[in-house]
Design a protein that fits this description.
The protein is mainly beta and 243 residues long. The protein is 8% helix and 53% strand. The strands form 3 sheets. Strands 1, 5, 6, 7, 10, 11, 12, 13 and 14 form a 9-stranded antiparallel beta sheet that branches. Strand 2 and strand 3 form a beta hairpin.
């Protein structure tokens, strides 16, 4: 019995040494070329950072009917809403540890604002339904490779452009109108991830945050836009990159 255990332990260490002695995975040759391409899938979570006007609690007065159509506002908040994105990656190696990359993506992610009033029956959630094309330019700082693994951090900027035209709300009842965002805006990005090398491809799990520059709110005199001075979009993305 003792001999069997000893033999098992010896075989275990021999196999471990053989595995560690194996040559690192090729990774599809992604790191052997200065220029490489791939694709990505992302989970997206959006929410707004809200700056309210000094008089944001005031009821909304509709000049069309010459009366107040909402009660006093108690609160405005934004909860994270999920979405997803698909895209492509173009990577260019600048040095052994620095890369530049462009990752244009099609993003399907709604945003929401929740309004509460002194009259609870008026409480409402307003969704901003958007499909955007993102054009990020990022720089990636990589660690040394350890076997089939290396870590990295990244940062950059991106421009987001809304696809399609929004609905004309001029003939819609004011209480049925949605909050509008700018069709295009810029953001900064920062994140971290790791490269995992397989024989025929490289997989890179990555988590990243993005915050918009300036105000993404499209000004309007509607019940749900009037109390807000500024909206900033905060995004968290978890992505899988394949090269």
């Amino acid at each position: 019995m003792i001999k069997n255990w000893c033999l098992t332990i010896v075989l275990f260490f021999l196999c471990s040494n053989l595995l560690l002695a194996q040559a690192p995975a090729w990774g599809g040759g992604a790191d052997q070329n200065d220029l490489s391409f791939g694709f990505c899938f992302s989970y997206v979570s959006n929410y707004y950072k809200i700056v309210k006007k000094p008089d944001w609690r005031n009821p909304y007065f509709d000049q069309g009917v010459n009366r107040y159509i909402t009660d006093s506002v108690k609160g405005i908040s934004s909860n994270p809403t999920p979405g997803f994105a698909i895209g492509f990656i173009t990577r260019y190696r600048l040095t052994e540890h620095i890369e530049a990359r462009v990752t244009p993506s099609l993003v399907f992610a709604d945003r929401s604002l929740y309004y509460t009033y002194d009259t609870p029956s008026q409480d409402v959630t307003k969704s901003v339904q958007t499909t955007t094309v993102d054009f990020p330019l990022e720089f990636k700082l990589k660690s040394d490779r350890i076997q089939d693994f290396r870590g990295y951090i990244l940062g950059g900027i991106k421009y987001s452009q809304t696809v399609g035209r929004g609905q004309d709300q001029s003939n819609i009842d004011p209480l049925s109108r949605n909050v509008k965002n700018l069709n295009g805006f810029g953001s900064w990005e920062a994140g971290l991830g790791c490269d995992i090398y397989f024989e025929y491809f490289k997989l890179s799990p990555e988590i990243k945050i993005a915050n918009s520059f300036g105000n993404v709110l499209s000004p309007g005199n509607e019940p749900f836009s009037a109390p807000i001075s500024k909206l900033s979009l905060h995004t968290i993305m978890f992505s899988l990159y394949f090269e």
